[in-house]
Design goal:
Elements lengths: L14 H13 L2 H10 L11 E6 L3 H12 L3 E6 L7 H9 L3 E3 L6 H12 L5 E4 L3 H9 L9 E4 L2 H12 L6 E4 L4 H24 L7 E5 L3 H12 L3 E5 L3 H9 L3 E2 L2 H7 L2 E4 L9 H4 L6 E5 L9 H7 L2 E6 L2 E5 L5 E5 L5 H4 L6 H19 L7 E3 L3 H15 L8 H8 L4
Parallel strand pairs: 1-2, 1-4, 2-3, 4-5, 5-6, 6-15, 7-8, 7-10, 8-9, 10-11, 11-14
Antiparallel strand pairs: 12-13, 13-14
Helix pairs in contact: 1-3, 1-4, 2-15, 3-15, 8-9, 8-15, 15-16
Bound molecules: adenine (ADE).
C-alpha cells in the first residue's frame, strides 16, 4: 500500500485563483446549496466518520461537491479522472481547504495511476467514480479494501458500461449506484450539458464558424442527441452515424441525415465522437476526409479517434493552436485533432455548464448520504432510488420558481383504477 500523504498538486500559490473560480460556480448551484443547508440543520454532520474517495474531473464545479462533502463531515481523498481536465488552481484551493487531493494538469499515465493509489491510501468506505477506474483498481489490486467499502456511485455512461460488465461476470463486490441512469442526470447532463459544452469547446478552440458546416455526430445516445441538436441550432448541416437501427431511425426522424462512417468521412467538416466505443474514426476514414477536417471526441476515453492511425499516416505533425494538433498527410491534406482526442469539453473547455452539473452532483451527494446512512443495498450495479432522483428535480424546479400542477383526488383515483 502507498504511504498516506496529505496532498500532491502542481502549485499551492494558485489557491486564491481556484477559490475565486469555486465561488463563481457555487453561486450557480442552488440545488447543492439547498441540500447542504437542509443536511446541516441544527449543526448536524451526516457524513462524519466516513472517508470518500472521489475520482472526478477536478474543476470548479467538482470542487464545490468535494467542499460540500467535507462540510458535511467526511474526510475527502480526490484524484483527477482525466489529466487534461484537472485544473491546477482548483487542486490548490482544495488542498488549502483540507481535501487530500492528488492531481495536476498534464499528468502522464503512470502519474495518473500513482495518484489513484495515493487517493486509495486513505482507505475510503465510499467511492465516487467517473469512468470506473477507481472501482476497477480496487477489484484488481486492492481486494483487501473491499470489506470496508459500503458502496459508491458512478456518473458516466462509460463507467456504467464497465460496471455492468464486471457485474455480469459476478465480480462487482460492493453496491454501485448508477447515477448516470438517474433521470436528473442523463436527461440534462448528457443531453444539454454535453450539447452545450462540446460546442463551446470547439468554438473557443478553433475560432471557426459552425453555421453552414457539415457536422458528423458519431453516436446518437443522449449525449449524441444533445451534440446534434445544438449543432443544428447553430446552423450546421448535421449527419449522424449509428450502429443501432432504433437510434438511427430516431436521428432520421429528428431530421438528420444518417449514414455509415465511410460515407460520413467524405462529407464531414467537423466530426464529434460520442459513442463510448473504441476506434470509431480509423485509417480508412481519415484517408477519405477533406483537407481541414476537425476531429473532436466527447466520449469518456481517448480511444474513439484512433490517434496511432493518424500519427502513422501523417508526414508532419504540429500544433496549429492551443489544443489543436494538426496531422499533415503526404497529399497535403490536414486533419486537426482537438484536446489530444480526450473529452474535448473538458480538455479544451470548462466542462458542462454549472447549473447542469449542479443537478448531477446533487444526485451524487444524495447517493453518498444514502450510502452513509447505512441504507440497505445489494452488491452490484444498482439503480438510484427514485425518491432521491425526485428530490433533485423538485429542488431544481423550486429554485427556478416553477410551480407544479397537483393531482386532484379524483385524478389519483382514476390512475389507480384498472376498471376504467
Ligand atoms: N465537470 C465536472 N465533471 C464533469 C463531467 N463529468 N462532464 C462534464 N463536465 C464536468
Amino acid at each position: 500500500m502507498t504511504e498516506r500523504e496529505d496532498y500532491k498538486v502542481a502549485d499551492m500559490s494558485l489557491a486564491a485563483e481556484g477559490q475565486v473560480r469555486m465561488d463563481w460556480a457555487w453561486q450557480h448551484m442552488p440545488v447543492m446549496r439547498l441540500i447542504r443547508e437542509r443536511e446541516t440543520e441544527g449543526g448536524r454532520l451526516p457524513l462524519k466518520g466516513h472517508t470518500i474517495a472521489c475520482c472526478l474531473h477536478l474543476e470548479a464545479k467538482t470542487a464545490c461537491l468535494l467542499r460540500t462533502l467535507k462540510d458535511l463531515g467526511a474526510t475527502i481523498a480526490a484524484s483527477g479522472s482525466n489529466p487534461l481536465s484537472t485544473q491546477d488552481p482548483i487542486c490548490a484551493a482544495l488542498a488549502d481547504y483540507g481535501v487530500h487531493v492528488f492531481s495536476w494538469h498534464g499528468m502522464n499515465a503512470a502519474e495518473y495511476n500513482e495518484n489513484l493509489e495515493r487517493m486509495l491510501a486513505w482507505e475510503p468506505d465510499i467511492i465516487i467514480d467517473d469512468g470506473c477506474d477507481t472501482v476497477a483498481m480496487i477489484h484488481d489490486k486492492h481486494e483487501d479494501m473491499i470489506p470496508k467499502i459500503l458502496g459508491g456511485c458512478e456518473e458516466t455512461t462509460t463507467g456504467i458500461k464497465r460496471l455492468a460488465a464486471m457485474d455480469a461476470e459476478g465480480l462487482l463486490k460492493f453496491p454501485m449506484l448508477a447515477v448516470n441512469d438517474a433521470m436528473s442526470k442523463y436527461l440534462f447532463d448528457n443531453r444539454y450539458g454535453t450539447g452545450q459544452s462540446v460546442w463551446d469547446a470547439i468554438m473557443r478552440t478553433t475560432n471557426c464558424v459552425i453555421a453552414g458546416k457539415t457536422v458528423v455526430v458519431c453516436g446518437y445516445g443522449w449525449c449524441g442527441k444533445g451534440v446534434a441538436s445544438r449543432a443544428d441550432g447553430l446552423g450546421a448541416k448535421v449527419a449522424v452515424t449509428e450502429v443501432s437501427p432504433h437510434r438511427a431511425l430516431e436521428a432520421h426522424m429528428d431530421g438528420y441525415r444518417v449514414m455509415d462512417m465511410l460515407q460520413a468521412s467524405e462529407v464531414g467538416e467537423i466530426f464529434v465522437t460520442v459513442t463510448g466505443n473504441t476506434r470509431v474514426i480509423r485509417r480508412e476514414h481519415c484517408e477519405r476526409m477533406k483537407d481541414g477536417a476537425i476531429l473532436a471526441n466527447a466520449g469518456h476515453f481517448d480511444v474513439e479517434v484512433c490517434i496511432p492511425d493518424l500519427a502513422d499516416m501523417a508526414v508532419k505533425t504540429y500544433d496549429s493552436r492551443k489544443n489543436i494538433r494538426t496531422y499533415e498527410m503526404a497529399d497535403g491534406r490536414r486533419i486537426h485533432l482537438l484536446g489530444e482526442g480526450r473529452l474535448a469539453n473538458l480538455a479544451a473547455g470548462d466542462g458542462h455548464p454549472i447549473e447542469i452539473m449542479d443537478m448531477s452532483f446533487a444526485t451524487q451527494l444524495l447517493c453518498a448520504l444514502h450510502i452513509a446512512k447505512g441504507s440497505e443495498m445489494k452488491k452490484g450495479l444498482q439503480v438510484v432510488p427514485a425518491f432521491l432522483d425526485d428530490i433533485v428535480a423538485r429542488y431544481k424546479t423550486e429554485s427556478l420558481g416553477i410551480r407544479l400542477e397537483k393531482l386532484t383526488q379524483e385524478q389519483e383515483r382514476y390512475l389507480r383504477d384498472w376498471r376504467g
